[in-house]
């Protein structure tokens, strides 16, 4: 490709790259490549001054291609496409080379090797840029409606928000009644409101809004289509309902860890989980009783089903976040019923983060006694002569063996992921190592998933209390609104394209396509293949199966890939020390 | 209405709220009192638990905010007054402070900075270095424009002579402007606990007692010394102590609550230090390790496995030895609660996040209520987290309480949602 004018920028990444890759050597080596008009190093290419420098060069030097060798395109591809656009270039004439994740960070032990590899990677990028052409994004008209899976507090709150912005919300709840876990409780911290009342209030708000539809005993059974224009099927009781929505919010909540038979005495009379105990406390009428007997002594055991040692089958290694605060709050409620009840809290670390520290202070003030046990020395619970005995080594009192006889043992159980497999497989969203749904990036895109237009909210992402679940549901709803309110969205044009002159329709590509994006059509009286550009993900499965070589992926054309290989394999000289 | 929403404070919360609203199609006025956006996050080294470089995550959000067609950015501007109009919208009075340079003409060539003879402690490096009176705040500042700190300027005129674009202009005056907006989001962030309020730890008296924010700067990609060293003699430390809960969970400094981030940033710095100084010993003195977020417990366990020492015990006081080393007095709680001493050559105070309440004063008619910990009060955490005592005014991020970056970002997106709904109601009402 003659006559191309390419600008190349090698980023130090403030040392992330330049500590291991000799960026000046890379610059020098690639500056001699045919078509390279500008070759520079830069401290932070992504900073505004770095971006401005590129824009100025494009304009002054009349560049028609830009290569930035910096971090992963996952981080900054869109940043620099934006730069290219502001400089008057087509964004697809920008090529990113990953010198950080794929070079400097991977080869911290071999600086010469990393530099040599860096030169090859940048050369490949330049070659690709030479074959880049102007592409236009695929424009999709978006539906102003959202499917919300789960009508607990997170789902209900998101639906009301979306309706208030003039959008349609469809809530799908698997149970016969909406409200999830929150409905089951009468006192929630920090505002001491009744969960039951909160859900009632939300359901009233929902019924006031015509643009919210609630399906109970319902589940998502099928999803086709794409961001902005999904077709979903809901099975509600006996009916199957088809809906057309622009986005999906998963707010499917959590389940509660169920201790194994015998785990801290579970199964024996008097050993209960925290949610069971909380309901008991809330139902008590001036006196706390268990099986007709008055309760005077309680031992709480923390971290049941959380912070487990890795290696055990299905170990929950994570901290379940809500439980310390919930146990402390319950302890305060018990003191309010009867301040003479003795409450032992057997813990590892009290994680009453932020303002919840005030719950810790109040529980302690009201007489709760704290006993700290080591990670390797969990308390022992035994039942003998009808009495519950708890034995534990207390780190706070010089590892003394403490023995207590109690009426109740409360196991402070962790939140665990709800049954997520069906939702995950229909929506194709990933599940993390902790078996909760995973976001794309905890800071850049915390409520978005790898599937465009599918968001996650509330405790299906990670344990959260109800107020935190509402924060994240509002965030997910805001992001859905940001996606859909405009009325259109743009998709990547790096999709398959069929050369109709070459195609002889054999159907192999149609069979190979995992997204049903290829169909038969007519061209000049012949049968040929055609691609539905909105459905195509650009995976390339159709390219090698075509016996005529008639299919190409835009932005990853055969010509570009061949040129990149040439760049990678080029003979270069790097002085080895 | 001139703008749908006014966002006050352009740290990560303000940027996220503005971008969410901008994408929804609302017109945003984003006002920052400092000369650059980015807040505290852009000054950090790496972020837990993924160890992403903070600059790498911040700078694209900063640039996206700066260039978004629906966001108007005003830096170096103070909000003076917010009052309510009859139709429910707000009138905002602002003061644009002069930069004393012609912003359009400045190319950030730094010639003024080089020529300036005045040196003052650099607030963007938390006093570890100096900056000039004519300066660009930091290398990734937005806007990347010089500013003249007139309080320290001696009017020598050297910068005027040095500037190749002739853009220094000492005749600029403060300018008052007024706008009407539909809703307000407060994202003014937090202050760091002033470690001198805890005299037993010796911060300000002992040179080798630093804050964790100073350690962030020593570890950052734009680090001032290109290595970690202690301040008394430039020695590279090999036995570093972290004092957790410095100014948090502490009645003696009137800050009872936990700051939510210090445990995790200390563990993170421990991991980074093990990379920079592989032979150094690192000890964390803690009360409880609060690794409560997604992936945090796993990060904590990994830090322990890598060899960080963890000692449960609060530091009572710190003494300085003649060679600059420090003696820490503490109670070793897990081992019989005996009083012990330990010597370290650098001490890092894991200072907490305290409220920044300046902004409450601009609301003249309705009162912006604070909570018991003096953060901006959220009046309905159950269903309207982010809603303040003033209808139409919302709070995003650490202005409402300590929180980490992931929590800040979703909190800000939620606040943006509230503001959008409020603006819609206002628009319906005026039809």
Describe it for me?
The complex is a heterodimer of chains A (577) and B (431). Chain A is an alpha/beta fold and 577 residues long. Chain A has four domains: 6-135, Rossmann fold (3-Layer(aba) Sandwich), CATH 3.40.50; 145-253 and 418-489, FAD/NAD(P)-binding domain; 257-414, FAD/NAD(P)-binding domain (3-Layer(bba) Sandwich), CATH 3.50.50; 496-553, 2-Layer Sandwich (Alpha-Beta Plaits). Helix content of chain A is 29%, strand content 26%. Chain A is built from 15 helices and 30 strands. The two termini of chain A are 36 Å apart. With 431 residues, chain B is α/β, with parallel strands linked by helices. Chain B folds into two domains: 3-97 and 174-189 and 356-429, 3-Layer(bba) Sandwich (FAD/NAD(P)-binding domain), CATH 3.50.50.60; 193-353, FAD/NAD(P)-binding domain (3-Layer(bba) Sandwich), CATH 3.50.50. In chain B, the strands form seven sheets. In chain B, strands 1, 2, 5, 6, 7, 12 and 23 form a seven-stranded mixed sheet that branches. Chain B has a five-stranded parallel sheet with strand order 14-21-15-16-17. In chain B, α1 crosses α2 and α5 runs parallel beside α6 (262-276). The model of chain B has no long low-confidence stretch (mean pLDDT 95). Chains A and B meet through α2, α3, α6, α7 and α10 of A and α1, β4, α2, α7 and α8 of B.
